Amino acid sequence: MIRENAWTKCDKKKINKVMEFCEEYRQFISQCKTERECAERSIELAKECGYVDLYDVIRKKQTLKAGDKVYASNMGKALVLFNIGTEPIENGMKILGAHIDSPRLDIKQNPLYQDEELVLLDTHYYGGIKKYQWTAIPLALHGVVVLTSGKKINVVIGEDMDDPVVGVSDLLIHLAAEQMDRKASKVVEGEALDILVGSMPMGSGKKKGDKEAGDEKEKSKAYILKLLQKKYGFAEEDFMSAELEAVPAGPARNMGIDNSMIMGYGQDDRVCAYTSLAAMLATENPEKTTVCLLVDKEEIGSVGATGMHSRFFENMVAELIDRLEGYNDLTLRRAMTNSVMLSSDVNAAYDPNYSSVYEKKNSSFFGRGIVFNKFTGSRGKSGSNDANAEYVAYVRAAMEMEGVAYQMAELGKVDAGGGGTIAYILANYGMNVMDCGVAVQNMHAPYEVTSKIDIYETMRGYMAFLK
Ligand code: MN
Ligand code: MN
Fold this sequence. Notes:
By secondary structure, the chain is of the alpha/beta class. The chain folds into 2 domains: 299 residues, 3-Layer(aba) Sandwich (Aminopeptidase), CATH 3.40.630.10; 145 residues, Roll (Aminopeptidase i, Domain 2). The protein is built from 12 helices and 21 strands. It has a 9-stranded mixed β-sheet, with helices on both faces. Strands 8-7-11-5-6-10-9 form a 7-stranded antiparallel β-sheet. β1, α3 and β2 form a beta-alpha-beta unit. It is globular. The two termini are 28 Å apart. The chain binds manganese (II) ion (2 copies).
């Protein structure tokens, strides 16, 4: 059953709308490359649409009613938005969920060292990556350094065109005879992902005897530390309480001679996060309370206080009920169980270069709209949330009512591999959940590719679901 290509159904006016929306998305992923940056920008956008901080509502002992819009930040790395509906909350919510963390190289807590006159930062990669893909490309450093005083320093190095970038070296082909014989997982080892950040010894440009000529043993490292202190105000030991992420430098780009795609870092899963947020913010006066949940740590198992396994979401629903009608445990349980959710994450787009891992009838394709996965998982659906047929039909009906382009797919061939999402975690409350999202090529590579019409149709799909 071949689904029609959604571009062919567009008139000129719609293509303009697609391009306009995708330009806003391109800006978002160019500026927001960490979970903290995504959470912060999402809150700004929500505030512009009238959302207020749930914690302020609680502090001021205010009550909430239908039509009110609130958000709550989870440690600045995850967040939830509620648009309160006219129906009682115990009837359930309509939830959009996606994750805002992406694979990258994290800077270790004791990272800085000098080897000969070169200065490097040691890293520990985050999430599933092909390590060889992260060498010999321009990288930027994003994150925070927190001093023992509590002061938080925001760091972004390598994004402005005038800014220097950093990067991981690769072995020249001329000396790579042994390396080229290794299997791909060993071509570049985890400990070979150290980032080159400097090569100029302290005192360069000074005459002997000048102040600051430098008498340190490791002059190149000393110079880097001096610059970090001067420009950002932190010292070597402050790396211990830092979260610095090395990510591909520079903006996402339009792609294709026909301008139909976007190539950029971190589209898993910011393409679903941004479209979920856009649909959430565009929805007014819902009947059921609508929710947008943007979480951290999906790439390492949804663990930790800011991952989906955290009690944060349940606690915020409890707080919401308390502000609406007074807390009641049974109301909370009913609100969770009666909810419906679209758990959004990217899917593997069919790739002619690697057609052997796809089973075409059940693959997702660029241009065919939002992708639904009844199940994910691997080796016999293991680890999957397998959505009920009744619920799949309900979601299909919502898409068809609004004429949204959609396709139904699996990640790849049976036993070719697999992957997990946050769907099963919400399903633990007994609610109906289905996986869906945008088809992506090069998933987890430094630059991932998406189709603009799919991004637009996914946003429309979320709006149809919330309606
Ligand atoms: Mn993902
Ligand atoms: Mn992923």
